[in-house]
Amino acid sequence: MRELNKQQSQDTTDGVEKGDYPRATNGIVFGAIVTFASFFVLMMSFCSPYWIESYIETRTSFKNMGLWQYCFKDFVYPKYQFTKMFTGCHNIFSHYFYVIREYLLPGWLMAVQGFVTMSFIIVFLVLLMLSMTIIRLPLKPVLQYEWLLVRFSFFGTAASSLFMFLAVCIFGGCAYRRDWLMYPKFNVLGWSYAFAVVTFMLLFVATLILHREARQAFEARGEQKNLVMQMEMQQPGYQPPRHHHSQSRSLQNYI
């Protein structure tokens, strides 16, 4: 009987050394792929200046804009006391747009910038956690706290999906306000805004996938913890904690 137990322990040790520990589930891998796709689309929407643009046929002074950039051609702001034409593409926070920044950056647009920026940062952190979960690095902490990593990833994608939903709703509802860009009927939402909508949908799909995986990982957290303890006990030179010795001694004295 002792030889059989010894053989089983040796087989388990060899299996762990060979990398026969539980791999990440297909659901986590698929959720990570969808999250990465959403991050790629979000990055294009975040950096590109085509959230709204004017029709080419109209030949208006406004050309296009993004979250961080405006493009004009011979634009004159009527409320500015000096006659100055704004031409070219420049950052919103550049000194070039200093005198009309309040006009270019209303409160609702700052809210859109904030929501998209928070979503961008959170999705990046979620990708880091999912990468650790998939490649199992570091091995023991990931196996022991996999349920926590997957749960945080679920919360992150859910929050990012909500932020992107708010961003596209606010921008879509306020893009044609007459107190913002002049001649709003000559403008149309661009492909950068469409990418933001696609990002929201992809993040929503990733949220559903990771929600299921988070529940399964939470149910299996006991098995993962036992596996980590078994791996530690099988390491050469392993010594049990001192409180185990004291408990066993007190139990012997009691008996």
How would you sum up this structure, described in words?
This protein has 255 residues and is α+β, with helices and mostly antiparallel strands. It is built from nine helices and five strands, in the order H-H-E-E-E-E-H-H-H-H-E-H-H-H. The protein has a five-stranded antiparallel beta sheet. Helix 2 runs antiparallel to helix 4, helix 2 packs antiparallel against helix 7 and helix 4 runs antiparallel to helix 6. The N terminus is likely disordered.
In a nutshell, what does this entry contain?
By secondary structure, this protein is of the alpha+beta class.
Q: Note the run of SSEs as H and E.
A: HHEEEEHHHHEHHH
Distance between the termini: 27 Å
Please state roughly what percent of the residues sit in beta strands, choosing from under 5%, 5-15%, 15-25%, 25-35%, 35-45% or over 45%. Answer: 5-15%
Largest sheet: 5 strands, antiparallel
* Mean pLDDT level: 81
Supply the number of helical segments: 9
Question: Which spans have pLDDT < 50 for at least 5 consecutive residues?
Answer: 1-18, 244-252
- The counted number of beta strands is 5
Going across the major beta sheet, what is the strand order?
Answer: 4-3-2-1-5
Shape: elongated
The protein's oligomeric status is single chain
